[in-house]
Design a protein that fits this description.
This protein is of the alpha/beta class. Helices cover 42% and strands 14% of the residues. It has one domain: NAD(P)-binding Rossmann-like Domain (Rossmann fold, 3-Layer(aba) Sandwich), CATH 3.40.50.
């Protein structure tokens, strides 16, 4: 089990206060890493890090702001001396404040350009900047693991039928921004893996499936019926895969996309 140990390693998780982000942090801490809980909400990040234990820290970080990332990087190196693991988890997944307008606004013909650009800024540019700032430290050390969180929708197109209710009415459409940006993340992983392979930095993608989180019953049923395991994921279903990619258990793995989706993309 030493292969999976992260004892003495420093791990940064962006978007750390999200549903899966918190589980990523908990798994890394359990494996022995010193976790940097990075999120735009500094107060909540500090509180969550404190709850994890005294060896962990919370930072307010904007993944779209290079100066914010550089400040964080300086502080992390001063405290821990190294940066060993980066989990690029921060992302926007469209939510529509007015459910009555969700169908109209999410349709491709009407989808707002500013929403598309905002997703690109966080989901793609944010991954680029975090990798540039923190990954450069790893390259200088000659070791490190970067894990870019993508999605099944970075691999296959959205099935719009799962968003139809019991009466067959389309409640909304999966908009173009998420699939486009997550597809970009997968190929950015390949670029970085090729670029930094000779520096000892491994770069892999983790592509999760949908997580059950108080969605409408019709959606949960529709989604579950498309998976080979017959269910949506639970928030902790990705912890084992994350530790595998972060640790020496995957020492000969780079440029890969680890798909953990209950069989959604298998057929």
């Amino acid at each position: 089990m030493e292969l999976f140990s992260l004892k003495g390693k420093t791990a940064i998780v962006t978007g750390a206060l999200g549903l899966i982000g918190k589980k990523h942090c908990e798994a890394l801490a359990l494996a022995g890493a010193q976790v940097v809980v990075a999120d735009v909400n500094k107060e909540a990040a500090v509180a969550f890090a404190t709850a994890l234990g005294s060896e962990h820290i919370g930072l307010g970080v904007d993944v779209t702001d290079k100066a914010s990332l550089e400040t964080a990087c300086t502080g992390i190196k001063a405290r821990y001396g190294s940066i060993d693991i980066l989990v690029n988890n921060a992302a926007i997944n469209d939510m529509f404040e007015n459910p009555a307008m969700a169908k109209e606004l999410s349709a491709f013909e009407n989808y707002p350009l500013d929403a598309f650009q905002k997703s690109i800024n966080v989901n793609v540019t944010g991954v680029f900047l975090c990798s540039q700032v923190f990954g450069a430290v790893m390259a200088g050390q000659g070791t490190g693991s970067i894990i870019n969180v993508a999605s099944t929708y970075g691999i296959v197109g959205p099935d719009q039928s799962i968003y139809r209710d019991e009466q067959g009415q389309q409640t909304f459409y999966k908009s173009p921004a998420y699939p486009v940006t997550k597809g970009a993340v997968i190929n950015f992983t390949r670029f970085l893996a090729a670029y930094w392979g000779n520096k000892g930095v491994r770069v892999n993608t983790l592509s999760p499936g949908g997580v059950e989180n108080n969605q409408n019953e019709f959606f949960v049923n529709n989604y579950s019926a498309k998976t080979l395991l017959g269910r949506m994921a639970q928030p902790n279903d990705y912890q084992g895969a994350l530790i595998f990619l972060a640790s020496d258990a995957s020492a000969y793995m780079t440029g890969a996309n680890l798909i953990v989706d209950g069989g959604w993309t298998a057929i």
